[in-house]
Each structure stands twice: as structure tokens, then as C-alpha cells.
Design a protein that fits this description.
With 188 residues, the protein is mainly α. It is built from 6 helices and no strands. It is elongated and about 80 Å long.
């Protein structure tokens, strides 16, 4: 199965509009290659590294940057939502009333909300991994077709979704949610 099809099949349905549009990026690459090959026929045989169709190449890089920004904005919004949720749960837990009846009800509600956050974390990791892989593959394809040395780092500087499965945003949410979960068990 080709990666574009794999990405579509494995993506989280309600988040599809926020994924990198791998298919359109691939179309831009093909159009750029076609244009470069046509210009080679007109001008004569040039070594591939001298192909100079900057409009398609610039179009590709610009679109790639837009797609990375789209993914980044969505990912950040999801992280922010969950960080706020965990902070709110910690506050609710610390200010929970001490009457036995309401304490049990409040604790159950907090546990439910903690579980929601914990269930979203694997989805966010999956989203981050799929977009990271898509970025890596499309940049590799670009470099192969145009004998370029574009790097994923140059396109995605500062993108937290590329670091998400290895450190900060998701790890912080997970540890916060785990803390709230542990505290809520104590308060029940």
C-alpha cells in the first residue's frame, strides 16, 4: 500500500482535515518533475542537478511549510486543551468538598475526565507519528526527484508535533493526568 493510501486509511477520521495533505504535495512534486523533464526536452539534455524550475520547487516548499503549520496548529490546540483539562482537574480535586456523598460523586466525575484525557494521548501520539512519517517521506521523495538536500528540520523548525512522542507536551499531560488519577484514588 502506498503511503498516501496508508495515511488516509489509518488516520483518525475526525482529525483528517488536520493531517498533512500528502496527496496534494505529491501532485506538486509530479507537476514539477514533469515541467523539468519538458524543459530538458526543449533545452537539451542537462544533468539532473542543473534543472532549474524554481516556480514548482518554491511552490512545493511553500505548500509543505503551510501543511506543517496546519498540523502544528492543530497539535498545539489539542495539547493546550488537555493541559487546561488536567490543570482544571487538579484544581477541582484540591477543592473537593469533604462530605462523603459529594466527595464520591466528585471523585467519580474527576476520574471520568482523567480517563478521557488519558484516552486521547495515544491518538495524539498516533497523529504526531503519522505526520512526522509523512513529512519524512515527502521530503525524501523531493530530494530524490530533484537531487536536493532539503531537510525535515529546515521545514519544521519549532514543530512540537515532531517531538511529541519523545518528550514535552504529551509527557507533561500524561504525568499530570496520572497525578490527578492517583490523587483521585486517594480521595475516594
Amino acid at each position: 500500500m502506498k503511503y498516501g493510501q496508508h495515511l488516509k486509511a489509518e488516520s483518525i477520521p475526525e482529525w483528517r482535515p488536520h493531517y498533512m495533505d500528502y496527496k496534494s504535495l505529491k501532485k506538486i512534486l509530479k507537476a514539477g518533475l514533469f515541467s523539468a523533464l519538458c524543459s530538458m526536452d526543449e533545452i537539451g539534455p542537462n544533468p539532473p542537478h542543473t534543472i532549474n524550475d524554481s516556480s514548482h520547487l518554491n511552490s512545493f516548499v511553500h505548500r509543505l511549510e503551510q501543511e506543517v503549520c496546519k498540523v502544528e496548529q492543530f497539535f498545539r490546540s489539542q495539547v493546550l486543551r488537555d493541559v487546561k483539562a488536567v490543570d482544571g482537574l487538579e484544581l477541582a480535586l484540591s477543592s473537593m468538598s469533604l462530605t462523603p456523598q459529594t466527595r464520591e460523586q466528585e471523585a467519580a466525575k474527576i476520574m471520568s475526565e482523567v480517563m478521557e484525557v488519558m484516552q486521547r494521548l495515544p491518538l495524539m501520539e498516533k497523529f504526531a507519528h503519522q505526520n512526522e512519517e509523512g513529512l519524512r517521506k515527502i521530503v525524501k521523495k523531493f530530494n530524490k526527484l530533484f537531487f536536493s538536500q532539503l531537510s525535515t528540520d529546515s521545514v519544521s523548525q519549532g514543530c512540537s508535533f515532531l517531538r511529541s512522542t519523545r518528550n514535552t507536551p504529551l509527557v507533561n499531560i500524561r504525568s499530570g493526568a496520572s497525578s490527578v488519577h492517583n490523587l483521585s484514588l486517594i480521595h475516594i
